[in-house]
Design brief:
With 234 residues, this protein is of the alpha/beta class. The protein is built from six helices and eleven strands. The protein is 27% helix and 36% strand.
């Protein structure tokens, strides 16, 4: 998720999120769950605690090293979510948290869903959590800054295209110690419920419900989050 609008939840918040995940997906001890874009493993550790066989996948070695410390009992894999290194029908559920979906363009994102469908067992569950597009739209024009490291400051500005559901975050990183300036751009697609339902269908999945937060509330335009819960057809 872009740092402009992201703040990593606490361990307590992560535990509440996992409680919601277990309830929404009807997970039981011994089930095998893939955390797609697992980051530092904050959900893996709680899934382990609940007796669930958790597998974490991420593209970042740095995040996987952090996940190894956080969840030493979980299998960790470095790979691209568009090409999952797992056998067909090898998971009971797949989760994708903290706005880790929407980075590859419409066809690339569809490819991610197709891979999720492939590795899910018939009737397997999927949960994708990201910012509600209506909430992301309120970030349009937001400017902020933060210290990335000692002597390194980041300036960021967000622009949201409501007609396309796309948030573009432009960053300028200034290294005061070395006198260097670098620029980067991050593009995230926030899908509306109707779009997500259509993509699920194309991937062999079906949406069961949209939630607006981890308290189980319904999705509304005022919801900060959009949590999509679905399943693979039997």
């Amino acid at each position: 998720m872009p740092e402009l609008i992201a703040e990593t939840p606490s361990r307590f918040e992560s535990s509440l999120e996992v409680e919601f995940i277990i309830d929404a997906l009807k997970l039981k001890k011994g089930m095998r769950v893939l955390d797609l874009a697992c980051g530092g493993g904050r959900h893996l550790s709680w899934l382990e605690w609940e007796g669930i066989e958790a597998v974490g996948l991420d593209r970042s070695w740095r995040r996987l090293r952090a996940a190894r410390k956080e969840a030493p009992g979980s299998q960790l894999v470095r790979a691209d979510m568009r090409s999952l290194p797992f056998k067909d029908e090898s998971f009971d559920a797949v989760i994708n948290m903290f706005t880790s979906f929407g980075y590859f363009g419409d066809e690339g994102d569809l490819g991610v869903l197709e891979e999720i469908s492939r590795v899910l067992r018939p009737g397997g569950k999927v949960l994708i959590e990201h910012w509600n597009p209506f909430s992301a739209a309120r970030m349009d024009g937001l400017r902020t800054w933060w210290w990335k490291d000692e002597g390194v400051v980041v300036l960021a500005e967000a622009k949201f295209r409501f007609d396309k559901g796309v948030l573009v975050e432009k960053r300028m990183t200034i290294d005061l110690r070395r006198g260097r300036v670098s620029r980067s751009k991050l593009r995230i697609r926030f899908y509306f419920p109707s779009e997500m339902s259509a993509m699920f269908g194309r991937a062999g999945l079906r949406v069961r419900r949209f939630f607006g937060d981890f308290d189980g509330s319904d999705l509304t335009p005022e919801s900060v989050r959009m949590i999509t819960v679905g399943e693979k057809a039997c």
